[in-house]
Specification:
Layout lengths: L9 H17 L4 H14 L5 H19 L5 H32 L4 H12 L3 H11 L3 H28 L4 H11 L3 H11 L1 H15 L2 H11 L11 H14 L5 H7 L4 H22 L3 H7 L1 H22 L4
C-alpha cells in the first residue's frame, strides 16, 4: 500500500497544522471556512496536538463568547432574552420528550439517548458534559453522543446561513432560529456571525439563556435518578452578562491603540478578539474530527439526532414565521 499524508513525520504534521492555524489568525477567514479547514486537516494529516484540543477549544470558546458580550447592549439583550424565554422552555420540553420516545423506538441505550436529547435541547457538547457525570455515562456513551452532535453541528454551520437567506428570514428571526435549532454554542455563533451582526447578538443572547437550563435539568436528572454525580455549572455565562453590563454603562476609550486593534474603544477591541477567537475555535473543533469518531457513532444515534433536529428545526421555524 502507498503512503498517505497521515504517514508524514510528526514534525511535518505539526508544521502544517501550525501554518493552517496561523492562516486563521492572520487572515480574515469566515467561520464555516475555518471549520472546513479543520475537518480537512483532521481527515488528511490528523491532529498532531489532539490531547490538548478539548481543553483549548473549551477555554477559547468561553473567552470568545465573553468578549462578544462587549458589543452588546443590556436593554437589547434583555429584550431578546425575554422574547425568547417561553419559546426556549417550550422547545426544550418538546425536544426532551421526542428524544425519549425516538431513543426508545430505535433501541438506543438510555444514557446515550439522554445525552443526545439534552445536547440537542440545550447547548450541544456543554450539556452533554454537564449531564454525563450526573447519569454516570461511560466514555463510549459520551463519545458517541459528542460525535453525533459534532457531525450535525458541522452541517448546521455550513447550511443554515444559506437556508436563512432562501427563507428570507430577518436578522431577528434568523438569530432566534439559530439559537433554537443549532445544538452547540460555537456553531450558533458561527452561523449567526456569517448572517449579520444583529443576528449574532440575538443568537448569542438566546443561546446562552438556553444554556442556563443545564443547571435545573441537571438537578432534576440527579433527583429523579437519585444520583450523587457532580453537576457542572457554565459559569462563563455570568461573565458574558457582566461584559454586556460593562459595555452598556462603562465605555472606555483608548484612541491611541484603537485603530490598530480593531476599534476605537477597549470594548470594540475585545469584540474583535472574540470574533477572531471564534474562528480559531471552529478550526480547532473541525481538526478534532476523525474517521474513528464517525465509525464509532453508528447510524442509530445519528438518526435520533437528525430526527430531533428536523422536529426542533421545523417547529421553531414555523413559530418564527408565524405559521403556527
Amino acid at each position: 500500500m502507498g503512503s498517505t499524508l497521515l504517514d508524514l513525520p510528526e514534525r511535518a504534521r505539526q508544521v502544517i497544522f501550525v501554518l493552517c492555524l496561523a492562516t486563521c489568525i492572520i487572515f480574515k477567514i469566515d467561520p464555516p471556512i475555518a471549520l472546513l479547514m479543520g475537518i480537512v486537516i483532521a481527515l488528511v494529516i490528523g491532529h498532531p496536538f489532539l490531547k490538548l484540543n478539548k481543553k483549548a477549544t473549551t477555554l477559547l470558546l468561553q473567552v470568545s463568547v465573553v468578549c462578544l458580550g462587549f458589543n452588546m447592549n443590556l436593554e437589547h439583550a434583555m429584550k431578546a432574552g425575554k422574547e425568547g424565554f417561553f419559546f426556549t422552555v417550550g422547545t426544550i420540553a418538546v425536544t426532551l420528550i421526542a428524544g425519549y420516545f425516538i431513543g426508545k423506538k430505535l433501541k438506543i441505550d438510555k444514557n446515550t439517548s439522554t445525552l443526545i436529547s439534552n445536547g440537542t435541547a440545550i447547548c450541544g457538547g456543554s450539556a452533554i458534559a454537564a449531564i454525563a457525570p450526573v447519569i454516570k455515562a461511560t466514555d463510549e456513551q459520551i463519545s458517541v453522543s459528542l460525535g453525533t452532535i459534532f457531525i450535525l453541528n458541522s452541517i448546521a454551520l455550513l447550511i443554515f446561513p444559506t437556508l436563512g437567506h432562501l427563507l428570507n428570514l430577518t436578522d431577528q428571526q434568523f438569530g432566534t432560529w439559530c439559537a433554537i435549532a443549532i445544538h452547540d454554542t460555537s456553531s450558533v455563533v458561527g452561523a449567526a456571525s456569517k448572517y449579520s451582526p444583529e443576528a449574532l447578538q440575538v443568537a448569542t443572547t438566546i443561546k446562552l439563556e438556553r444554556a442556563l437550563w443545564i443547571i435545573p435539568l441537571s438537578l432534576a436528572t440527579a433527583y429523579f435518578q437519585k444520583s450523587t454525580g457532580k453537576i457542572k455549572i457554565p459559569y462563563f455565562i455570568f461573565y458574558f452578562v457582566l461584559a454586556i453590563i460593562a459595555a452598556t454603562y462603562l465605555p472606555v476609550y483608548i484612541p491611541i491603540l484603537g485603530n490598530k486593534l480593531g476599534g476605537n474603544t477597549l470594548f470594540e477591541w475585545a469584540y474583535a478578539f472574540g470574533r477572531k477567537g471564534l474562528v480559531i475555535t471552529l478550526f480547532l473543533i473541525g481538526s478534532g474530527l476523525s474517521l474513528k469518531t464517525i465509525r464509532t457513532v453508528g447510524w442509530r444515534p445519528i438518526l435520533q439526532g437528525v430526527l430531533l433536529w428536523i422536529i426542533i428545526g421545523s417547529l421553531s421555524l414555523a413559530v418564527i414565521k408565524g405559521v403556527i
